[in-house]
Amino acid sequence: MTWKTLFNPFLKFDEKKLLVVGILFFILNIFGCYYSESINDSVFHYSNLDEDQGIWDIVKINSLSYLLAIAIIFILAKILNGKTRFIDILNTVLISQIPLMVMIPVNGLPFYKEAVEKISENINTPQNIPIGDMIMVTIWGFISLIFLIYSIVLYYNGFKTATNIKKWQHIVLFAFISILTTIVSQIIF
């Protein structure tokens, strides 16, 4: 596997195989969210699950946030290139979320949750924050940032491959619509 394949699997792999992998990881995402008590309220964001929410709420919110992103990005893709296929946009959203799912198990670990809670409780008195907790949360924050960047790269490369965009104006429009979709999705869900 080359670097090009790692950062743009949409060029190398068949769309049906990508779809199967994407759907499998979407299902794993639901169970991962249940384990970590979180929801995927937009394609690049996880929120804490409310106490009165269960697995069916996770299924509903995760599904709706993905569907919103797919619908809006597909409309944009069709505007930019009328030959864009739905399966390519579907794969773009599904595959781009896989790196973010790596963060779910860590965020669900009891000792990690406890460390985050201690930091939150002592945010106004930094001298009371345990150094070990601060180091663990900081290191995991940097690792999470790497996964987020990789996810965004997959998202962009998938869209670029699906639409064959080359103009900088189209790229800026794609970035703007993606950010707007992420914010709107978090507000709605």
From TrEMBL:
Classification via Pfam families: Yip1 (PF04893)
UniProt keyword annotation of Transmembrane present: yes
Limits of the Yip1 domain: 26-184
Source species, domain of life: Bacteria
Coiled coil start-end: none
Keyword terms, alphabetized: Membrane, Transmembrane, Transmembrane helix
Major place of residence: membrane
Transmembrane regions: 18-35, 55-77, 89-112, 134-156, 168-188
Keyword Transmembrane: yes
Record membrane topology: Multi-pass membrane protein
Protein name per UniProt: Yip1 family protein
Organism: Chryseobacterium terrae
